[in-house]
Write a structure and sequence with these properties.
It is a single chain. This protein is of the alpha+beta class. 49% of the residues lie in helices and 18% in strands. Helix 2 packs parallel to helix 10. The longest helix is centred in the middle third of the chain and has 66 residues. The two termini are 74 Å apart.
């Protein structure tokens, strides 16, 4: 280690220590500041900057009953016995000095009038309001003047409904002083209620965003609505509300309406938490809530009976609803053992505990309408619920990560499986192709043909699995190009005819002579769709026939909602048919219907699932008509554009290849005698297959078995194309390609490099192109694919056409 490095590390170490000390000092200062605030705020009392001019009314009250007995009331609030009295009079002597603009503030929700020295001064008809009957007590001002000093003030009460009357605490002062006093007395509950409402509003907005984004029901959303409503109820219930919003009637009525509806969002929340297991019961409970709301609101607004008169019944119904909910929760947790929301149950129990404490507090004589315990219960429930949802989201993120890791592992497995299986298949198909090109007797040719058929079947199984992997990831590719529908149908029929004949089946066709000659679409996928449907028909038909129909029709274009041309393919067989109860499972992956009867039939169970997905992604549809034991017909409607409207006329199979012509393809149509090719592959058999197939067009093919050998050869010889295998020991194809660009004396900087690989999973082509390859050739290679590569990348002047 150098001296400068040691000095740098010492400086860094000293800097880290200073950072920690500074961090600690700042933290201590923050704690000290917070401590000072709380101590000073609650323990150090200084004179106010202004005189609120309001105090509890100091003078005594007297009450004279119907028998002439006078009772002096020195302490308020006080409960007065008024048995048998229709009208009650409460008297007090006003103070000896009264400033201007002074009021006595009296708390009530009933009718009363005010007399001073026997003369009526004020009369309050609180029940008559534009919003129905007033539903809660409020502070009402009684105006007193300086000249009223020393006079007797009488409060007259009537329309009494009980044998007792509560004389509340009264205040005397001016408007500003009283409002300040009232606000100070209620600051704690108001601060809590508004704070939880603001916090809950943020939660509610986030829940709505989450629901819009995921399009899923989010349980916390309903609890947020419930907490917001409950906090609004507490604010409306507070006697400070009329002074904050200058409205004396709406708050009381709305407060009761919210109380009637309050069980609804809580029930919705529980219903989602319980995954709708008891939804029928909750539906009945919610119907009760609706009836409860409509009946009591109607009675209030029509002056039949106000909310206060029905308060006992309202509370009883609410208590029954809460009891039913608790029973369901306990039953679900402890009988059914569904413990996935235990912490929420604890939150509800905490909320109920605080509600009971609030009820006890309200039953104490002289209490103010506070609600602090309810707020604490709501905060507890909301915090616990947020923790529960955050835990679920965290678990879901872990599960998502695990699923992604599983998908990555699956993709790696598919890539490896693709390479490991396709490599020997490539050798089998390639060697068999070479055998079929030799001058051999008919017996050997039959054997070779059987090998080819078996190899193609095996390759189809592998392709099904890889196609399904692409579909699962939602990245299946569709390429629109012009194609000849006659040639496509002819090639499919010729391919399937041999299989049908082997089972003794008739392969018929009914191809419309009005089909347009040229269509635009993904011909490869359409070919796969028809092959899958016909393969299925041949596999599940023991005797009779398979019929392919093709004609043009119309379908709805999903983009502009108008009809569009569609290729309609029908494949009908006389096979075993499909039971009615099995039809819903037809297009599900890995499904094998009537398994006992069909257990000897080969296949992955993916063919129809892949076919249905292809058709759906192309904007089409597929239907099935079947009678069990008599046969099945699949009808695929695939939107296609028309490139050439000329009808194909009468369809024939006259271009069907003979056995001897079958192996003549594009490689036989041209020669490249002056082209020079290099094949790099670590597998000896693959080298033999590739070089022999390439020798059909050119005699100048070099081979090597490693990336290191390739780096040596590219400095000695200029090539027209280099076929480079990917997965090789030591140095793989991608590494070899990258090193070639930095190799001194490389004669092949501009030479096309073709990825020659058995890796055929989704994204393989893009991966190779992004790593510098010019093109991609998947194993097992076909002569048509080789011909395409040679024609595309060998200079045109070196290609000699044989036709």
């Amino acid at each position: 280690m150098t001296k400068s490095t040691d000095e740098t590390q010492k400086i860094r170490s000293a800097s880290d220590k200073a950072y920690k000390v500074i961090h600690l000092i700042l933290f201590i200062l923050l704690v000290c500041t917070a401590t000072f605030y709380f101590i000073a705020q609650h323990c150090i009392h200084n004179p106010s900057f202004f005189d609120p001019e309001c105090e509890v009314y100091p003078n005594t009250w007297t009450h004279t009953d119907i028998n002439g007995n006078t009772e002096t009331i020195t302490s308020v609030p006080a409960t007065i016995d008024i048995t048998g009295e229709d009208i009650v009079r409460l008297n007090t002597v006003l103070p000896d000095s009264i400033p201007d603009e002074f009021y006595i503030y009296y708390n009530t929700g009933k009718n009363f009038s005010v007399e001073i020295d026997g003369e009526q001064r004020e009369s309050y008809e609180i029940r008559v309001t534009p919003y129905g009957i007033n539903a809660k007590n409020m502070w009402l001002p009684i105006k007193i003047n300086p000249e009223d000093a020393g006079k007797t003030l009488t409060i007259v009460r009537w329309d009494l409904f009980s044998d007792s009357l509560v004389l509340p605490v009264c205040y005397i002062g001016n408007d500003h002083g009283f409002f300040y006093t009232l606000l100070k007395a209620n600051r704690f509950i108001l601060l809590l209620a508004f704070s939880i409402q603001i916090f809950d509003l943020l939660v509610l907005i986030l829940c709505l965003i989450y629901r819009i984004y995921t399009r899923k029901s989010f349980a916390l959303l309903y609890l947020a609505v419930a907490v917001f409503a409950a906090s609004a109820w507490l604010i409306l219930d507070n006697l400070t509300y009329p002074f904050l919003y200058d409205n004396y009637f709406v708050d009381g009525v709305t407060e009761f309406m919210i109380e009637l509806l309050l069980p609804f969002p809580f029930i919705l929340y529980l219903n989602i938490l319980q995954k709708r297991r008891y939804q029928n019961i909750f539906n009945i409970v919610n119907i009760v809530v609706i009836i409860d709301f409509l009946v009591f609101s109607f009675m209030h607004f029509t002056n039949i009976a106000d909310f206060n008169s029905n308060l006992l019944l309202i509370n009883l119904i609410t208590a029954i609803i809460i009891l039913i909910t608790l029973i369901i929760v306990v039953y679900d947790l402890f009988v059914k053992k569904n413990r996935d929301y235990t912490i929420i149950a604890i939150g509800f129990l905490t909320f109920i505990m605080f509600a009971i404490i609030e009820i006890i507090h309200n039953s104490i004589e002289g209490h103010s309408n506070d609600g602090s315990y309810i707020v604490l219960g709501l905060i507890s429930l909301l915090v616990i619920s947020i923790y529960h949802e955050m835990s679920n989201i965290y678990k879901m993120s872990i599960q998502t990560s695990e699923a992604q890791a599983s998908n990555a592992a699956k993709s790696a497995f598919l890539a490896n499986m693709s390479h490991e299986i396709r490599t020997p298949i490539n050798a089998i198909i390639g060697m068999n192709e070479l055998i079929l090109r030799e001058d051999i007797n008919d017996t050997v040719k039959d054997y070779a043909q059987n090998v080819k058929d078996a190899s193609i079947s095996l390759l189809e199984l592998i392709n099904d699995i890889l196609d399904f992997s692409k579909i699962e990831q939602g990245k299946i590719e569709f390429v629109s190009e012009e194609y000849d529908i006659s040639e496509l149908l002819r090639s499919v029929i010729n391919m399937l005819r041999v299989r049908a004949q082997e089972k003794g089946l008739e392969l018929d066709h009914d191809i419309s002579d009005k089909l347009p000659r040229k269509l635009i679409g993904d011909s490869r996928r359409i070919r796969e769709i028809i092959i899958n449907l016909m393969n299925n028909a041949v596999k599940y038909t023991e005797k009779g026939s398979v019929t392919l129909k093709a004609y043009m029709g119309q379908t709805n274009d999903p983009d502009n909602k108008e009809t569009a041309p569609a290729l309609i393919i029908s494949v009908k067989d006389t096979g075993i048919g499909i039971r009615e109860e099995d039809k819903d499972r037809l297009f599900k992956q890995f499904e094998r219907l009537d398994y006992k009867k069909n257990k000897n039939i080969e296949g992955t169970g993916l063919g129809l699932a892949i076919t249905a997905n292809f058709i759906k992604n192309m904007g089409g549809s597929i239907t099935c008509e079947s009678e069990y034991g008599k046969g099945t017909e699949f009808i695929a409607v695939i939107p296609q554009r028309i490139a050439d409207e000329t009808p194909i006329g009468e369809f024939s199979e006259e271009n069907r290849k003979t056995d001897n012509e079958e192996h003549k393809n594009d490689l036989d149509t041209f020669r490249c005698p002056d082209a020079r090719l290099l094949v790099v592959d670590d597998n000896k058999i693959n080298l033999i297959v590739a070089s022999r197939l390439l020798n059909i067009t050119t005699p100048n093919v070099d081979c090597c078995k490693s990336g290191a050998e390739m780096l040596d050869l590219i400095c000695k010889q200029k090539y027209d194309i280099i076929f480079l295998d990917h997965m090789m020991p030591g140095m793989d194809g991608i590494e070899a390609l990258k090193k070639s660009h930095s190799t001194a004396g490389n004669l092949n900087e501009d030479t096309p490099y073709i990825a020659l690989t058995a890796n055929a999973i989704l994204g393989a082509r893009e991966e190779y192109l992004s790593n510098g390859f010019t093109d991609y050739l998947s194993k097992p290679m076909t002569t048509s694919d080789l011909a395409r590569i040679l024609r595309a990348h060998i200079p045109a002047e070196k290609i000699i056409s044989q036709l």
